[in-house]
TrEMBL record:
Transmembrane segment boundaries: 6-27, 39-55, 61-83, 95-112, 118-136, 157-175, 181-201, 231-250, 262-291, 303-323, 329-352, 373-396
Protein name: DUF92 domain-containing protein
GO cellular component: membrane
Record organism: Mycolicibacter kumamotonensis
InterPro entries noted in UniProt: DUF92_TMEM19
Tree of life domain: Bacteria
Family: Belongs to the TMEM19 family.
Keywords: Membrane, Transmembrane, Transmembrane helix
């Protein structure tokens, strides 16, 4: 332990000194803030990757990283920046290095003593993220607004190339995979990680990329050739469906990229059974949404909607399945999908009802599409949608999926309706006077009317889908 403390403490000190020296040298040469932030960022990745192979006590490593995370957060929050540009970069408060340390901490807690996986994670983050930012800033022409920031497609291509190269080295040298398997794993790592970097909030990528890459390389240790082939197909499939969803106008660009990411990960880590139910019912729901709409773009779903309604019920369970191989995770996924589909079908089919729905809050009839309202047709659609998801899931997970889907769909739809009727935020449009659920209407900001302001439709759907996932697990365990 004393050796690990000395190495870890010396490593942190070395990194700090290197950051200061490199930062000062870059500032003297007139480098811009992006360069003075990203070059030390890349050096951090290299130092941390090397340190992973010099340490043997996971508790010491986790403790040092926890202290470093807190210290960096204090430095950034207080503005105690020894070299302008190293910590603050291009934003007033840049938590990139905080996320870097926190992400490494998560990877250590989850995967220690798999040093190859952890080192690969920090190396990909340090080198690919820095390279993508610098190349995107210099050569970027095609901008993408997603995740609260603006990235470039050129930078994302650079990220894929660098992440592939780094992952390939670790797969060949560290995991000792053959060339084909190393290519398949590296391509899957590069494509999915680039999508994560493109879609999440600035600085959040530093938190997520290291544990994500570590997870994939940790799983790759036990891959068969057939598994590697599926990872390769998953990467291609995830990329291929993005233009299809854009052409169908089902999703905007960030939403389509998120959909491709979810599809690729589901197929890679779980298999085709994990994405087929979600894909089939998402397609049917999108067609229902587009039917009788004045404009095809009116029903397009956004990044946040895709993340809540597909990411939550698909990604979370499939990652759990990759860890444990427990079939209960498939029931969790079917439960979440059933909850989302049951509620969506209730809304989309319920609007064809001849009579307006009844609000659970006021007990009076309200306009169609109002949250927290029910109608006989919409309620019937809930049961049909939930049963359909359960029946489809039974093709892959056994007949137990039928009651799983039915129960989860009904419970999730009920939770959605109750939250929508009680605390979901409502706003009044200052232009037309309509009561809406959006913060923007008629091209201008709306005014709060009632409800909790942070509980928007995405939050309601997240609670409903979570309830469906929990119900799916409970029903599956009872019938197991």
């Amino acid at each position: 332990m004393s050796h690990d403390l000395a190495v870890a403490g010396g490593g942190i000190l070395l990194i700090a000194v290197a950051l200061i020296l490199v930062g000062r040298a870059l500032v003297r040469r007139g480098a811009g803030p992006l360069v003075t932030r990203k070059v030390p960022h890349a050096l951090c990745g290299l130092f941390a990757a090397g340190a992973a192979f010099q340490l043997s006590n996971g508790a010491v490593v986790a403790g040092v990283l926890a202290v470093a995370t807190v210290a960096l957060a204090f430095i950034v929050e207080r503005g105690l920046v020894p070299v302008p540009g190293v910590f603050d970069g291009t934003r007033s408060r840049d938590y990139g290095l905080v996320g870097f340390a926190a992400g490494a901490l998560v990877a250590v807690l989850a995967f220690w003593p798999d040093r190859v996986a952890i080192a690969a994670g920090v190396a990909v983050l340090g080198l690919a993220d820095a390279g993508a930012a610098l190349i995107g800033d210099r050569l970027g022409r095609h901008r993408v607004e997603a995740g609260g920031g603006v990235r470039s497609l050129e930078g994302s291509v650079a990220f894929v190339a660098i992440a592939f190269a780094v992952s390939f080295v670790f797969c060949r040298v560290g995991l000792e995979l053959n060339s084909f398997m190393a290519v398949a794993v590296s391509l899957f790592v590069a494509v999915t990680t680039a999508a994560v970097e493109l879609l999440v909030w600035p600085a959040a990528d530093n938190l997520l990329i290291t544990p994500w890459v570590a997870l994939l390389l940790h799983v790759a240790r036990d891959l068969s050739t057939d598994d590697a082939l599926r990872w390769l197909a998953a990467a291609v499939f995830g990329c291929a469906i993005v233009p299809f969803m854009l052409r169908m106008r089902w999703l905007d660009l960030p939403g389509a990229l998120c959909g491709g990411l979810i599809a690729g990960i589901a197929v890679g880590l779980g298999g085709w059974a994990w994405i087929i139910p979600a894909a089939v019912f998402f397609s049917l729901t999108s067609l229902l949404t587009a039917y009788r709409r004045p404009s095809r773009s009116e029903g397009m779903r956004t990044l946040s909607q895709v993340a809540v309604n597909a990411g939550l019920p698909v990604l979370t369970p499939v990652i759990g399945f990759a860890f444990t191989r427990d079939p209960a995770w498939y029931a969790v996924s079917i439960g979440g999908i059933a909850a989302g589909i049951a509620d969506s079908w209730a809304s989309e089919i319920g609007r064809f009802s001849r009579r307006d729905p009844v609000s659970l809050r006021t007990r009076s009839r309200v306009a169609k599409g109002t949250s927290g309202a029910v109608s006989p047709l919409g309620s019937a659609a809930t049961v049909v949608g939930a049963s359909a998801v359960g029946g489809f899931g039974a093709l892959f997970g056994g007949l137990t999926m039928v009651p799983v889907g039915l129960a989860a769909g009904i419970i999730g739809s009920l939770v959605d309706t109750l939250i929508g009727a009680s605390v979901e935020a409502r706003f009044v449009c200052t232009a037309c006077g309509a009561t809406v659920e959006d913060r923007l209407h008629c091209g201008s900001p709306t005014q709060p009317s009632w409800g909790w302001r942070w509980v928007d439709n995405d939050v309601v759907n997240a609670f409903a889908n979570g309830a469906g996932m929990a119900a799916g697990l409970v029903v599956f365990q009872l019938l197991r």
